[in-house]
Write a structure and sequence with these properties.
The protein is of the alpha+beta class and 102 residues long. The protein has helices spanning 35-46, 73-78, 83-87; strands at 2-8, 14-21, 27-32, 49-57, 60-68, 90-96. A hairpin with a 5-residue loop joins β1 (2-8) and β2 (14-21).
């Protein structure tokens, strides 16, 4: 799975980056336009992410908090809406490939 990210600077420039996740959920930066977006993604790839997980229990959807550890499929999926990246102005703009089932 490949996630594409973008960041728009105040001067109108757009920086883009791609992160590829292997079948185990480990992420690698394939491309980054500049050091700002690269360093933010490097930090995000090694930092646990607070997220929510859902499952079907007795016909009802149950959702609860979880901590996605780096290098796992859950962490790869949590990178899609990482609050840390969003606070830095970096958002996920596209997914290529099949998302992980977690």
């Amino acid at each position: 799975m490949i996630l594409r990210f973008a960041c728009r600077y105040t001067d109108g420039r757009i920086a883009k980056a791609e992160v590829e996740f292997d079948s185990t959920g480990k992420g690698f930066i394939r491309r980054a336009d500049d050091s700002y977006i690269r360093s933010a993604l490097e930090e995000a790839l090694v930092t646990p992410i607070q997220c929510e997980v859902s499952e079907c229990r007795n016909g009802a959807l149950a959702t609860g908090p979880a901590v996605a550890q780096p290098g796992t499929p859950l962490h790869a999926m949590a990178m899609i809406a990482s609050r840390t990246l969003l606070k830095k102005g970096i958002q996920m703009v596209a997914i290529e490939g099949k998302p992980f089932q977690v």
